[in-house]
Amino acid sequence: MAFKELDTAGWQALDSAHYLHPFTDHANLAKTGSRVAVRGEGVYVWDNNGDRIIDGLSGLGCVNIGYGRPELAKAVYDQMLDLSYCQSFFNTTHRSAVELADTLTSMLPEGLNHVFFQSSGSEANETAVRLIRKYWDLVGRPEKRVIIARELAYHGSTHMAASLSGITPMHYAGGDLPLPGIARINTPYQYRHGANMTADDFGVVAARWLEDKILEIGPENVAAFFAEPAQSAGGAICPPMTYWPEVQRICRKYDVLLVADEVVCGFGRTGDWFGCYHYGFVPDIMQLGKGLTSGYLPLSACVISDRITDVLIGLGGEWAHGYTYSGHPACCAVALENIRILREEKIVENAKAELVPYFKAKLETFVDHPLIGDVRSVGLMGGLEIVKDKKTGESYLYEEHIGPYCSAEAMKRGLAFRANGDTMSLMPPLVITKDQLDTVFDIAREALDATA
Ligand code: PLP
Hints:
Layout (H helix, E strand, L loop, with lengths): L7 H11 L7 H7 L4 E5 L2 E4 L4 E4 L2 H4 L8 H13 L12 H13 L4 E7 L2 H18 L7 E5 L8 H6 L4 H4 L9 E4 L4 H4 L5 H19 L4 E6 L15 H11 L3 E5 L13 H5 L5 E4 L11 E6 H9 L14 H16 L2 H18 L7 E7 L2 E6 L16 H10 L2 E2 L1 E3 L2 E4 L7 H18 L1
The structure holds pyridoxal-5'-phosphate (PLP).
The site of pyridoxal-5'-phosphate has 15 residues, from helix 6.
C-alpha cells in the first residue's frame, strides 16, 4: 500500500475499514469520515488539508504545555538511545524513574512519598483500588471493602475504573458493571442540587452526603472515598471551597482512605499545581496522568502515603501487581522534561495569574446566552451547560442532546469544543494566549448561536 499517495478519502476509507476509535459511533463516523490530523504546534493542530484547529481541549485535557516542543522529543530520543526499556523488578531500577519519583514526591504534600507508575489513568485507578484492598487486608481489617465513589465521576475504561465511574453509559458498554463493592453518592453540582444555598453552605452539605453514606454502610465496612478534585468529563463540576476540607475531616473521622484522582486536575489545570493544593486537602493516595507528560507519551502515577507503604513495605512479601511498562524510561524522561519546562517557564503560575481570571470572565459572558443555564469553572477548566428551558433549568433528554451538534459547529469553524452530555467543555493548553482565548470564545459563541 502506497500510504504516501493516499488522499483524504483514501485515509478515511482505511480508517473506517481497520481502526476502531475510542468513544465513537462508528456508523456515524463512516458517514462523516475522520479528520486526518497531521501536525501540532502550540495550541494548534493541522489536518492534511491544511485546515487549522485551535485546541480548546488540550487534546483530552492532557496537552498542558502545548504541541510540538522539541525539548520533549529530544528527551525521548536521548533516553531511547541510552536505555530504551527497563523492567523494574528482579531488583533493577533506572535513573529516570527514580528521578521522577523523587521529583513528584517533592512536589506533593508531606507524607506522600512513594510512586507506582503505569501507562494510563485507568490503570493508575486499578492500582489504587488493589492497593486499598491490600492495605486493609494487611492491617487485619478485610471487612473494610466498600469504596464510595460519586455520580458523574469519570475514572477510566478498565473494569474497575469504569465501575467507579458514575457516568452510566460506562456501565452499559460491556462487562456486567459496576463491579461489586462500590457505593455511590451525589456530587457537589450546585446548579442541580443546591441552587438555593450559598456556595459555602452547599459545599458542607454535599460533603455530608459522604458522612451519611459511611454511616449507612457502617464505617467498619468502608475502605475509601474515591473522587476527582473537580469533575471534568462529568461536565466541569467544580466544588465550593468548603467541600474538600469537610470531606477530609469526615474521612479521617471514620478511618476511610481518601483517594484523589488527579488525572485531569494535576499539573496546573485548576490554576494550582495540583487539585489538592487548590482545594486544601491531603489525600492518602493520588493518581496523576495526562499533564504528567503533557500527553507526549503515555504515563500515569499512583502516589502513595507513608501510612500505606509503611504497612506494604514494613510487613514484607511481594505485592503481585505491575505492568510490563511500569516506569518506562522514555515516558519518565519525557515527564521530567515536561516538569522542568513547566517550572522554568512558570507556566502554571503565569496561567493562574494571567489566564485564569481572563478565562473565567470570558466564560461568564455566556450567562446571558439563551441556551446556557449554568456557567462554571476552576482554573482553565470550564463548562457551559446547555438547557432546554433557561428559566426552569430543564435539561434535554439523553436522546435529544444538542451538545454534539454544537461541537460539530465549532469544529467546522476550527475549534475543538467538547460536549459532555449537554455541558460544553473547554480545557485549553496552559500556554494559550489571551488573543487565542478570544478566538476560542468567539467561535464557541458562533457555534452556540448556530445551535440555538
Ligand atoms: N481519571 C480521570 C479524572 C480522567 O478524566 C480520565 C480520563 O479522561 C481517567 C481517569 C482515565 O485516564 P486514561 O484515559 O488515561 O485511562
